[in-house]
Design brief:
This protein is an all-alpha fold. It has helices spanning about 10-20, 25-35, 45-50, 55-65, 80-85, 85-105, 115-135, 145-150, 150-160, 160-175, 180-185, 190-200, 205-215, 225-240, 260-270, 275-280, 285-300. It is built from 17 helices and no strands. The longest helix is centred in the middle third of the chain and has 21 residues, at about 115-135. It binds fe (ii) ion (2 copies).
Length: about 300
């Protein structure tokens, strides 16, 4: 289906809510999200969910047996794998695996590197989780999920109209501008708008919907309850771009000294007062290496 360029935002929003060809959030991912919202995710909750998906169970066993976990004997059961990997890590792996598998279905052609898209998304999930923990920000929201899904609008724009999406991709390269600006010019809407609508369609929480919708412009968020959440997401995204784990143009990788998300966080967290973004990233160097390894592991 081809949509004519530069239609009104309402037009795209209606399309997103009515198109049956758009991806749905896999049932397994929804179940994991629901289970992880309860305070203590347990083995008995996660095990039956994963057993329903043999390729996922195989992947988990493969990861538990990888050099990363350094086990001397073979890990043969899922229960054992859960103990080794840990509950939270495992729910992250299972969530990404099911989302990536479902949403990557049938997106060939046009030579876009979707593997790199998912690499950026998974890394952003881990970095968001890391930043939130480092700043001891109290939250019920899974920042991993938020990071994984923050750019999902790019995939949806591509699915709605691949040719227009390629045009915006090339425009960003030629004009040396961000994908956000190029999408606005070609489609009249951006991946943040589209991501927000798809998150609404998937009935995600208000915080997730708002954070996805404003991750490039936290200062524009109208509901102030979410300004810290969206700024944390923006910074996680920028850390990934800064470390060249990016998708799209390199012009997305700016240093956010003057970015509003960074200012919001500096006001909110005393430990960031007077710290510049580059020193903040250098402080995360070891953890970022671990994250890179985990991202590679998920992709093999
Ligand atoms: Fe984005
Ligand atoms: Fe991003």
């Amino acid at each position: 289906m081809t949509i004519k360029k530069n239609r009104s935002p309402e037009y795209y929003r209606d399309q997103i809510f009515s198109l049956t060809t758009l991806p749905t959030l896999p049932i397994i991912a929804t179940e994991i999200l629901r289970a992880s919202r309860e305070d203590n995710l347990s083995v008995s909750q996660l095990l039956p969910i994963m057993e329903k998906d043999p390729p996922l169970a195989m992947k988990v066993l493969k990861i538990a047996n990888s050099a990363y976990y350094g086990m001397r004997t073979d890990v043969k059961s899922l229960r054992h794998a859960i103990v080794i990997i840990g509950m939270r890590e495992l729910s992250n792996i299972a969530f990404s695996f099911s989302v990536i598998k479902e949403l990557s279905h049938d997106i060939g052609g046009y030579n876009l590197n979707w593997k790199q898209f998912w690499k950026h998304s998974v890394a952003c999930g881990y970095v968001a989780q890391l930043v939130v923990e480092g700043l001891e920000y109290p939250t019920q929201t899974s920042f991993y999920t938020l990071g994984l899904l923050h750019d999902i609008g790019k995939l949806v724009l591509y699915r709605i109209d691949p040719e227009c999406y390629i045009e915006s991709f090339e425009l960003a390269n030629n004009k040396r501008c961000s994908s956000f600006v190029a999408e606005k010019e070609v489609f009249g809407v951006t991946h943040s708008d589209v991501g927000m609508w798809i998150a609404e369609r998937w009935k995600m929480t208000e915080e997730v919907i708002n954070a996805i919708g404003y991750h490039h412009h936290p200062e524009k968020i109208s509901d102030y309850r979410f300004k810290v959440c969206v700024s944390l997401l923006q910074i996680a995204d920028m850390v990934c771009n800064f470390k060249s784990i990016n998708f799209g143009t390199e012009y997305d990788s700016s240093i956010p000294q003057s970015e509003d998300g960074w200012k919001i966080l500096q006001n909110e967290f005393k430990r960031l007062d007077g710290v510049d973004f580059e020193s903040f990233v250098s402080g995360l160097e070891d953890e970022l290496e671990t994250i890179k390894k985990m991202v590679d592991l998920l992709q093999t």
